Amino acid sequence: MVGEARMVLVTGATGGIGTAVCHQLAGSGYPLVLAARNEAKLKTLSDELTGDGHVWLQLDMTNDQSIRQFGEELAARRITLDGVVLMPPQAHSTNDPMPGADAWRALFQNCFIGPLEVLKAAIDRMNPDPVNGRRAKIVIISGISSAQVLGRYATSNVLRCAWIGEAKTLAFALGARGIHVNTLSLGGTLSPWYREGIEKRADAVGITFEQRLAEETANIPLGKYGEPAEVAVAVEGLLSRFSDHMTGLNIMHDGGFTRSY
């Protein structure tokens, strides 16, 4: 439980992982700013959450006008943020290591530049006071291709490394203000869309979901994929006093799959 109201922005709030994060944080007493594209889903999620003080704002991180309006709305409502959970849009899986220039421009705009503008707007609404123990925490959700190359995630390898570099840069730039920036890089996580992918792969070879899952997790030391609820607990830890002397870190949440040091 948090000792005082510490408002946290969660982008991608209505997605499989975002919803789990919101329920975890709301259950621990955090008032939330919920941000996503679909207004109906945002309202439903807000109504489902425990606790008081939640607000929702429409946000499309791939649209410059939406991002500007989002920042203006944060300021107009005089929202002060103590934390941000930033989930940038993900690039589709691809084996192509050299897409065309237009494809790269779109990928960087939608998956890096746009979300970074959202983060800048959120940082403008932070007012930490580290001398008196009030710190602000940023958690950027990434993936394990930030730590080791994955062939089927050719473009994600690049984009996620860009986020790691930006997070480290921000950690150095904002540390004196009491703003922490850490990255949580996910391995396979059983969000609804990831489960659907496993089901399709199982159907394609005529085996059960459980059999396919066992095959895919055989090379993971813990022998399993993560659950959205487990991601949510890790996010809450990084927003809490647990991380008061941690910044600029890229933390693997992958059951031990990543082999690099």
TrEMBL record:
InterPro entries associated with the record: NAD(P)-bd_dom_sf, SDR, SDR_fam
Alphabetical list of Gene3D superfamilies matching this protein: NAD(P)-binding Rossmann-like Domain
SUPFAM superfamilies hit by this protein: NAD(P)-binding Rossmann-fold domains
Family as reported in the entry's similarity comment: Belongs to the short-chain dehydrogenases/reductases (SDR) family.
Protein name, entry field: SDR family oxidoreductase
Taxonomic source organism: Rhizobium ruizarguesonis
